[in-house]
Amino acid sequence: MSKEKNINTEEQLQEENSANLTEETQQTTEEQNTTANEESTETPEVEVDPLEAAQAEIAELKKQILYKVAEFDNYRKRVIKEKADLIMNGGEKVITAILPVMDDMERALEQMRKAEDVQAVVEGVELIQKKFMGILEKQGVKPIETKDADFDVEVHEAIAQFPAPSEEMKNKVVDCTLKGYKLNEKVIRHAQVVVGI
Questions:
Q1: DSSP label at 151?
Q2: Helix, coil or strand: residue 185
Q3: Which of 19, 38, 41 is CA-nearest to residue 30?
Q4: CB burial class (10 A; 0-12, 13-18, 19+) of residue 108?
Q5: For residue 190, what are the CA distances in angstroms to 115, 136, 148, 181?
Q6: Contact, 98 vs 132, CB < 8 A?
Q7: CATH H-level superfamily of 140-197
Q8: How far is CA 100 from its chain centroid?
Q9: What is the pLDDT of residues 66-103, one digit of tens each?
Q10: What is the DSSP letter of 192?
Q11: Count of beta carbons in the 10 Å neighbourhood of residue 174
């Protein structure tokens, strides 16, 4: 009986060991499964093909270039239109300023036809000339000084030479036949002068 008891005890021990081993194996398997599940839930690293990435970047850059080209083309067309408008209507401001002088000239002509006093007509024309010169000065136009000025090829155009009445008048302007003008310090018409020699 003691042998049977020992055998039973050994069998029980083996069964317990087997049960323990089975539990340990199950726990290990469960842990491995859990780890595998956790790894599978993480986002897998996707390998990007360098060629595809480069092609996508090229496509994006082409798109940007097309937008820039279209934007520049619109800007160019707008500038051309503004320039054409400026050329066509650029003188509008000056012309509007000159119109009152034209009105004065018409009134002066009417008065000249009726006038008996020549001095009054001269004074009227002088007033109109001063008004006109005032408008031009507001636009940046100034006459070039020629009286007793040294001859300067930058602003004067010599149309004749004349013997100087004195030594001081040599190489100086003796007479002005046509007034010259500057627009904002740029010569727009040279003064035609006679130079003393």
A1: P
A2: coil
A3: 38
A4: middle
A5: 37, 17, 16, 7
A6: yes
A7: Head domain of nucleotide exchange factor GrpE (2.30.22.10)
A8: 37
A9: 999 999 999 999 999 999 888 888 788 888 889 999 99
A10: E
A11: 20
